[in-house]
Amino acid sequence: MKLLMITRKVDKDDAQAGFTYGWVKKLGEKVNELKVICLEKGNIEGLPDNVEVFSLGKEKGKNKIKEFINFQRGVLKFIKQVDGVFCHQNPEYTILIAPYAKFFKKKIVCFYGHKAVNWRVRLMHLFSNKVVTSSEGGFQIDSPKRKVISQGIDTDLFKPDVNKEKSEKLRIIAVGRISPIKNYETLINASKILKDKRLNLIVNIAGPILLEKQKEYLNELKNLIKEKELEDQVHLLGGTIQSETIKLYQNSDLSVNLCPTGAPDKVGFEAMACEIPVLACNHSYLKNFGAYSDQLLFKEKDSEDLAEKILNLYQSNQLEEIGKFLRKQVIEYHNLDNLLKGIIECF
Question: What domains appear along the chain, each with residue ranges and CATH number?
Fold first, then answer.
């Protein structure tokens, strides 16, 4: 099988989109040829020889007209050579490729994982043959085209460190872009409560700023950390490349995900794959929490409840037990091989 994949960025070192490189690499290993059109590319070292990446050129500077022209060039270069088109996440890719796919009679399969349903998403649904998603909440149009598979976590990459060092401190990690929807202030306030209870902890928040307006939110977090006198406990690390993020998971004792209920956040499953218990307020994780749901689910934006759950979890001596259970859940239900197999079956 020969496929064309359209995605935003292919760069193994990117803080936000580094996982896409893994998708491209493993999908390339499962098909005869894989052509990739991306908005921008970075480090693509190590991709299989049967993978060809065509960038629209954003890495050289943003130019929408040039990017649009390059998209047409890339599509015309590849569309006749492939058996189908796989569009990753952004609905615009499906909308743009649809006329070509219709003319050349190529099937379109999309991956979409977000609670938003707008006119772009509806057009994506209209033009696609199948929409693959990670959960019921990941694509909220009730349709026979929808196929729920998994999050697509590379469990060969995201795995526990057998040589993990012990620490006297409770090491907490939170990963995700710096944005108000991530509710990091809830974790910072919970850290203050735990500090006052004499819990020795270290909290690392790893995430990039993707938009200029998010700098204001970052400054609010810095001021809150200073106000609560948590400079020694809470650290804002900025964006980290994928290999660094994995090390952060592996050297932590638990992860906190503060996003509201909707499609489950991918980083939560990455932490689980590294055998790290995940505390979340997003009810979409309940299926994977199993018998530990009461221990791992906290009330959204409730710092006191989060602090209580962290403390109870720490005192339960179940961190290792829960971590092993959650990794098994990811391997069985959310590993990348299953997702890519399901996508290929759609063609």
Answer: 2-148 (3.40.50.2000), 170-332 (3.40.50.2000)
